[in-house]
Amino acid sequence: MTDELASEDADLDPEAPVARRHHSTLSSVRNAARLLKEFSRGSREIGVTELSRRLGIGKSTAHRLLNTLAEEKLLEQDPDTGAYRLGLAMYELGASVSLHTDLHEACSPVLDQLRNATRETVQVAVLDGREVVYVERRESPQTLRLFGRVGHRNDAHCTSTGKLLLAFLPPYRLNPLLTDWELSPHTPHTITDIDRLRQELEGVRHRGWSENVNEAELGVASIAAPIRNGLGEVVAAVSVAGPIQRLTGDSLKRFARPTVEAGLAISRRLGYRDSTTRRDGA
């Protein structure tokens, strides 16, 4: 058994001795992390020889690490100098961390106000492939309410936040997602036909908000509006959700205006400044 495999086994055994668990890490992963951190020390590009010297590892090991990270788009190699620099994937990860931090700070007071005004559960979700991830949540103060948690995932095609986020994707991102997507039927009301989903998304784009009635779960309805960044891009969705007994028909649409206004308020806190934001149907 190699040292790395032995270390992985130690991670799985809670009864392993403390000294053994202390070393239950992968040296290759640690070296990769140390390598990436070297680019935070002011060096835009670093060569194989310099990295091996800084990390105290062999040139062949450094070269393998660099090639692996480059294949994963975390690094890229300059074809002229042979040196390496941070790749696009690293910038995307950094932007994601920044977005979530900024989003949390921008959302908090607005979500409190929206929850108090509607007395329903309010959430903020972001798109991750064909799923939505709920990153912020405020519980309804009412006895009959929904139960969930931050970090929960759901299919995008059957949720108001998911349909909203899909609707505002540029075509070059939306079309690959819709291709060969088998839409799971969560309930008899879930949209399971791609053409029908496309029509639904077009309607969402036109009116500026989306709704879900019994599509993700029987007895649950919600309405969602966009959250935009300083460039005007839709980066998240805010929603109001509750039991179908309280959110149905006209009573559900009554929440469109406060939800759209909450989305606009959060967007402005993120730097969005377009005063012509649509409020159709609100």
Give the topology, please:
Blueprint: H1 3-12, H2 18-22, H3 27-37, H4 48-55, H5 59-71, E1 75-77, E2 84-86, H6 88-118, E3 121-128, E4 131-138, E5 153-155, H7 160-167, H8 171-178, H9 194-207, E6 210-213, E7 220-228, E8 234-243, H10 250-253, H11 256-269
Antiparallel strand pairs: 1-2, 3-4, 3-8, 4-5, 6-7, 7-8
Helix pairs in contact: 4-5, 6-11, 7-9
Description:
The protein has 282 residues and is an alpha+beta fold. The protein folds into two domains: 3-86, Arc Repressor Mutant, subunit A; 92-269, GAF domain (Beta-Lactamase, 2-Layer Sandwich), CATH 3.30.450.40. The chain is built from eleven helices and eight strands. It has helices spanning 3-12, 18-22, 27-37, 48-55, 59-71, 88-118, 160-167, 171-178, 194-207, 250-253, 256-269; strands spanning 75-77, 84-86, 121-128, 131-138, 153-155, 210-213, 220-228, 234-243. The strands form two sheets. Strands 5-4-3-8-7-6 form a six-stranded antiparallel beta sheet, sandwiched between helices. It has a two-stranded antiparallel sheet with strand order 1-2. Helix 4 crosses helix 5 and helix 7 packs across helix 9 (194-207). The longest helix is centred in the middle third of the chain and has 31 residues, at 88-118. The protein is elongated. The chain starts with a helix and ends in a 13-residue tail after the last helix.
Q: Main beta sheet: strand number and arrangement? A: 6 strands, antiparallel
Secondary structure: helix percent: 40-55%
Category from helices, strands and their pairing: alpha+beta
Question: From the coordinates shown, what is the CATH architecture of the largest domain?
Answer: 2-Layer Sandwich
Which geometry do the CA atoms define? elongated
Q: How many E-type strands?
A: 8
Which regions have little confidence, pLDDT < 50, spanning 5+ residues?
1-22, 276-282
Any idea what the radius of gyration is?
24 Å
Total separate domains? 2
Report the sheet-strand fraction.
15-25%
